[in-house]
Amino acid sequence: MRAKYDFSGRSVLVIGGTTGIGRATALAFAEAGANLYVAGLGAAEGRSLIEEVGKRHPGIAIEFAEVDVRSEDAVRKFHETAYERFGRIDVAFNNAGVPGRTAPIHELDQADFDLITEVNLRGIFFGMKYQIPHMLANGGGAIVNTSSLFGVMGYATTAVYCASKWGVIGLTNSAALEVARSNIRINAIAPGSTMTPLLTNMFGGEQSARDTVLPSLPMGRIADPSEIARLVLFLASDEASFITGQAVIIDGGGFVAGADKTVA
Known about the structure:
- The chain has 9 helices and 7 strands, in the order E-H-E-H-E-H-E-H-E-H-E-H-H-H-E-H.
- The chain is α/β, with parallel strands linked by helices.
- Helix 1 runs parallel beside helix 2, helix 1 packs across helix 8 and helix 6 crosses helix 7.
- Belongs to the short-chain dehydrogenases/reductases (SDR) family.
- Keywords: Oxidoreductase.
């Protein structure tokens, strides 16, 4: 990280932390001194994250659990275990997401709709449902949710994905108002094209993703996950103490340039 944040002595939840933006953010929090409880899918990826944090930051406590965020029971148990392990959770990053099938809406079926909305939207609802009471009882905290550039604009062939990410912003805005006087800040990030498995899966591979999105990006490049991680740490830090209920776009200028021009 270039910007330095101090999370020493704080405990952080990262949900959806094994790959991409989530993994980069977990590593950034570890570098900043935070203890981590990470949820994700993939035991091997979880082990590799623990090993990487251990090598880079041997003093950091990190735990990992496989969690399907579509299951309220699984999400509840994850939070209970994390609270028992660390006593207090100061920051939560709700990042679990899937791209789903990319196709015109009339070619999608209910299973496509259910997968995207249950992971991307219901998963964040469950996360905040079990984070907010804990933070209310312990004097406050900060929550960051992952939306998307596609949460503030439409994009052909990704209608359900867009709907799920618009919903994340609605949850974020409304929940932030509910706890604004309780020392809890809730914000969202709205990343544009970032070189992650989600992007490559959405567009059918790394080269296809580049070919599709690069023409619409004024900065002429796709973001690295570490760049998005720095925004998460800022929003979770005391430096953002007067920011709540916002969806912060981080997209290399694509939104203001009209990034949907390349898809018919």
